[in-house]
């Protein structure tokens, strides 16, 4: 029964993706879109981890023209998303996946990051930018979050696909590790709200980190599909688990921690704030 529900949701997501990207004139050198798998474990956790963008996601978007919405399961999911998660989620190096595993180790999410039986990811991993223009791995000129012109190009093609997926999968929690510089895209394209339609609240009661660094978004309209969903926006794990300790930009946070006798590093304290907020949902 649960698996049938997953398949129904997945079929709708695949159709959305196909309809969104089948016309991609002028975008032939963009990557294939990252489209998530909805697993039975996700329906238990209802947790979405929203990243920024994918680094060279399995070839080019032109492959979409070789298939149709009914055949996307193999192209997007089995050969890409499922294969990557099955082989890498439990051991992939890098801050994003280390933090993803920590969500389970800390008890924020139940079960295992990959289901022991079906080998599917137990939460929903998505990205704010589903596609990117990147000719080779680590090509920094192809990162949407680094180049506004590229982000605008991606969103012109992607439109409100992320929000439409949210409508279908009905998350309980969204952790958007997209950074404050992407808030305009997050609100408009993923949450489908204007600035005055969402309250932005501080997560840190000690006020070491303000709303720019870590915030909770609460949608005001009770008729909105995401009303009542816990939405936390943070830095990307690559920054808040490592670089945050070294940056001079947040030297005021270090001063506040010393004044308040908070013994941890900025990285440890920041993660504690995230875990504490998500555990209380």
Characterize the structure shown.
This protein is α/β, with parallel strands linked by helices. The protein has a single domain, classed as 3-Layer(aba) Sandwich (Uracil-DNA Glycosylase, subunit E), CATH 3.40.470. 39% of the residues lie in helices and 11% in strands. The protein contains ten helices and six strands, in the order H-H-E-H-H-E-H-H-E-H-E-E-E-H-H-H. The protein has helices at 2-21, 40-45, 72-88, 95-105, 148-158, 161-169, 183-191, 237-240, 251-259, 266-279; strands at 47-53, 124-129, 173-176, 198-202, 215-219, 230-233. It has a six-stranded mixed beta sheet with strand order 2-1-3-6-5-4. The longest helix is centred in the first third of the chain and has 20 residues, at 2-21. The two termini are 27 Å apart. The model has no long low-confidence stretch (mean pLDDT 91).
Q: How would you summarize what this structure contains?
A:
By secondary structure, the chain is of the alpha/beta class. The protein is 39% helix and 11% strand.
List keywords for this structure.
single chain, 281 residues, alpha/beta, Uracil-DNA Glycosylase, subunit E, 6 strands, 11% strand, globular
List the helices and strands and how they pair.
Elements: H1 2-21, H2 40-45, E1 47-53, H3 72-88, H4 95-105, E2 124-129, H5 148-158, H6 161-169, E3 173-176, H7 183-191, E4 198-202, E5 215-219, E6 230-233, H8 237-240, H9 251-259, H10 266-279
Parallel strand pairs: 1-2, 1-3, 3-6
Antiparallel strand pairs: 4-5, 5-6
């Amino acid at each position: 029964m649960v698996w049938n529900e997953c398949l129904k949701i997945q079929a709708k997501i695949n159709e959305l993706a196909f309809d969104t990207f089948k016309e991609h004139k002028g975008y032939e050198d963009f990557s294939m879109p990252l489209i998530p798998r909805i697993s039975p474990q996700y329906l238990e956790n209802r947790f979405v981890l929203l990243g920024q963008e994918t680094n060279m996601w399995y070839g080019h978007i032109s492959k979409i023209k070789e298939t149709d919405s009914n055949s996307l399961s193999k192209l997007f999911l089995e050969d890409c998303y499922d294969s990557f998660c099955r082989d890498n989620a439990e051991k992939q190096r890098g801050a994003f996946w280390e933090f993803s595993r920590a969500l389970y180790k800390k008890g924020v999410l139940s079960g295992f990051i990959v289901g022991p039986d079906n080998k599917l990811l137990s939460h929903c991993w998505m990205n704010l930018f589903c596609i990117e223009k990147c000719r080779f791995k680590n090509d920094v000129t192809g990162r949407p979050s680094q180049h506004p012109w590229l982000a605008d190009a991606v969103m012109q093609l992607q439109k409100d696909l992320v929000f439409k997926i949210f409508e279908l999968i009905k998350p309980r929690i969204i952790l958007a590790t997209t950074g404050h510089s992407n808030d305009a895209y997050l609100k408009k394209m993923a949450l489908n709200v204007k600035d005055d339609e969402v309250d932005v609240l501080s997560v840190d009661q000690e006020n070491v980190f303000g709303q720019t660094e870590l915030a909770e978004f609460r949608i005001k309209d009770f008729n909105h599909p995401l009303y009542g969903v816990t939405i936390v926006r943070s830095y990307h794990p690559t920054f808040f688990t490592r670089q945050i300790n070294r940056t001079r930009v947040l030297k005021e946070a270090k001063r506040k921690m010393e004044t308040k006798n908070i013994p941890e590093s900025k990285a440890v304290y920041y993660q504690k704030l995230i875990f504490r907020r998500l555990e209380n949902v």
